[in-house]
Amino acid sequence: MYPQEELRQLQQLKQKARKEFDKNLENERRLNQIKKLRHNYERSQSMFVSIQQIGLTNSAEHINKIISHLLDIGEQVTFEARVDYPSEIEGSRGRLRILSTWKILPDETKYLSTIKLVPMLGA
Predict the structure, then answer these.
(1) 86 Rama class: left (phi>0) / alpha (psi -120 to 50) / beta
(2) Are residues 90 and 114 in the same domain?
(3) Residues 40, 61: one domain?
(4) Domain range spanning residue 76?
(5) pLDDT digits (tens, 9 = 90+) for 88-123
(6) Which residues contact 73 (CB under 8 A, 6 or more apart)?
(7) Sorting pLDDT into bands at 50, 70 and 90, what band is 80?
(8) Looking at the structure, do residues 42 and 64 belong to the same domain, yes or no?
(9) pLDDT above 90 coverage of the chain, percent
(10) Alpha-carbon span 61 to 20, nearest angstrom
(11) pLDDT tens, position by position, 7-20
(12) What does pTM read for this prediction?
């Protein structure tokens, strides 16, 4: 969860007491940080819904299936084909297209930086 109450308080302070808000430069930085946390939280919740739609759950078995899939994909990624690398994983009610973006570090270690999930129900 992101700090929803702190976000509300900072936004209220910015709207109703702008001079006080502006006195502390940390307020704007923290407000932006919380907004980013909210975006990440909402995005992760959306991805979880996509996972559930295809019949996967947050069980250890299904989590390990997804992790194993991503580790296998990481082995196939090349520098030329590392952005939105397409793959699919199957659940009991459908398939999920995974578009993964990877960073390749100087020592050639592959680092998963972003994933996008696209449900393919009934496919």
Answers:
(1) beta
(2) yes
(3) no
(4) 57-123
(5) 999 999 899 999 999 999 998 999 999 999 877 655
(6) 85, 87, 98, 100
(7) confident
(8) no
(9) 76
(10) 51
(11) 999 999 999 999 99
(12) 0.70
Residue at token pair 């995005």: 43
What are 52's two structure tokens?
Answer: 């559930």
Same domain, 73 and 118: yes
> Which residues, at least 6 apart from 20, have a Cβ–Cβ distance to it below 8 Å?
13
pLDDT at 121: 61
Backbone angles phi, psi at 115, to 5 degrees: -130, 145
Average pLDDT, the chain: 91
DSSP states along the chain: ---HHHHHHHHHHHHH-HHHHHH-HHHHHHHHHHHHHHHHHHHHHHHHHHHHHTT--SSHHHHHHHHHHHHHHHHH--STT-SSEEEEEEETTEEEEEEEEEEE-TT--EEEEEEEEEEEET-
Other C-beta atoms closer than 10 Å to the C-beta of 68 total 11
pLDDT of residue 65: 94
C-alpha dihedral over 36, 108, 62, 101, to 10 degrees?
Answer: 40
Let me know whether 37 and 74 are in one domain: no
